[in-house]
Specification:
With about 375 residues, the protein is α+β, with helices and mostly antiparallel strands. The chain is built from 10 helices and 21 strands. The chain is about 25% helix and about 30% strand.
């Protein structure tokens, strides 16, 4: 059997994305055909396995993998994790038990779709937040022109790895190692800012670096690991508005916005009452998003009918369990925040509107705060923590 070349595999992947109605813009398709993803995966990636109780991340090294198999791995429409808890796959001495991904090469279909949704086009000035492996930055360079692209990465090891990969592929954008939430005023103003990390809210400093009428595409998330991808049109340096996009896009949290660390904790007694909602609603993509809007400082630790919400700052807790008779659920709450009360009220407002997908939500940023609304700007709304 004849081995397929990288160019042939890219062409096949692009054909798949077009057939799946992911790609439409000819410039984005051309970039997808041109950029060699194999350069950006580097010399190793992590492959996860899930034996009972823990995820094990095993390094897969390019030198130990047949060349044709590595290319097939590269051109799957799949995310490959490249760093766990700050350790790059090429530097890992062996499998890692547990741990959390801290950098990855996101599946090309999502990256290219986001680039298309953000409106990156020839001649536009672009800021990429979260350089990662450099692949998304390479796509932006191929479309907008390398002199128009700035890319920022907070992790020094990841940034250096990306710098080498971009150079090897022939791209020389402005590369910055710094906190991406601060943007990079040195190359502003930008026509497009696109973030490949998630944020709890939009830093006002980013808005001030985007031209009036420009676009910010960012995934909003929180400590309950719910996500919504929003496309905002900037009015001026302190205001913007836009709608959430369809689909199910998630990214690692920007490190300054990540949840506070805590050690083991004890679930303590509290006030008990029947729950007004099925706790499994928090397993629904949008249900979890709505719950997170209601209790933005709570970390979600449970699943199914055994939900646990923990607020580290106040010590507030809420946990829900199924009743023994199977006819309902009991919630136990303690602390100054009644977390489940807040969630129930929020879920109720969402259900009153027909339980729509997150794409029915929108966002307004103004001087008095950042507000998520449902259906229309005058509909039910929630304020983001800023």
């Amino acid at each position: 059997m004849t081995q397929e070349t990288a160019a042939e595999l890219r062409h096949r992947l692009v054909g798949q994305l077009v057939a799946d109605d992911v790609l439409h813009d000819p410039e984005v398709r051309r970039a997808a055909e041109a950029v060699p993803r194999e350069v950006f995966l580097g010399s190793a990636v992590y492959r996860p396995s899930t034996p009972p109780g823990v995820t094990v991340w095993t390094p897969v090294r390019r030198d130990d993998t047949p060349a044709d198999e590595w290319l097939r791995l590269t051109y799957r429409n799949q995310t490959w994790v490249t760093q766990i808890d700050g350790v790059l796959a090429e530097n890992a001495p062996g499998p890692v038990s547990g741990g959390s991904p801290t950098s990855s090469s996101t599946l090309p279909g999502v990256v290219l779709w986001m680039i298309e949704q953000a409106g990156i086009a020839p001649g536009k000035r672009v800021l990429v937040i979260g350089t990662g492996t450099g692949l998304s930055t390479a796509y932006a360079c191929e479309i907008a022109g390398t002199r128009n692209v700035t890319s920022i990465e907070t992790d020094t090891d990841v940034a250096e790895r990306a710098r080498k990969a971009l150079g090897a592929a022939g791209y020389v954008p402005t590369l910055v190692t710094a906190d991406g939430l601060r943007g990079y005023p040195g190359q502003a103003p930008y026509d497009v800012v696109i973030a490949f990390c998630s944020m709890r809210h939009v830093p006002y400093g980013l808005l001030q670096q985007i031209s009036p009428g420009g676009t910010l595409l960012v995934t909003l998330s929180g400590w309950s690991a719910a996500y919504g991808l929003v496309r905002l049109t900037v009015r001026d340096g302190s205001s913007a508005e836009g709608r959430f996009l369809p689909g199910y896009t998630s990214f690692m949290m920007a490190r300054p916005h990540d949840k506070p660390s805590h050690g083991p904790f004890e679930l303590l007694p509290g006030e008990e009452r029947p729950s007004r909602i099925d706790p499994a609603l928090l397993d629904d993509w949008t249900g979890r998003f709505v719950a997170q809007l209601a209790a933005p400082s709570a970390e979600r630790l449970g699943a199914g009918v055994e939900q646990v919400l923990l607020d580290v700052a106040t010590g507030s807790q809420a946990r829900v369990r199924a009743d023994d008779d199977g006819d309902g659920w009991t919630v136990i709450q303690r602390g100054p925040l009644r977390l489940w009360d807040q969630v129930e009220d929020s879920i109720g407002r969402w259900r009153d509107q027909g339980s729509p997908h997150v794409s029915e939500f929108g966002m307004t940023i103004a001087r008095d705060g950042q507000r998520i609304w449902l259906r229309g700007s005058q509909g039910p709304s929630w304020m983001l923590p800023v």
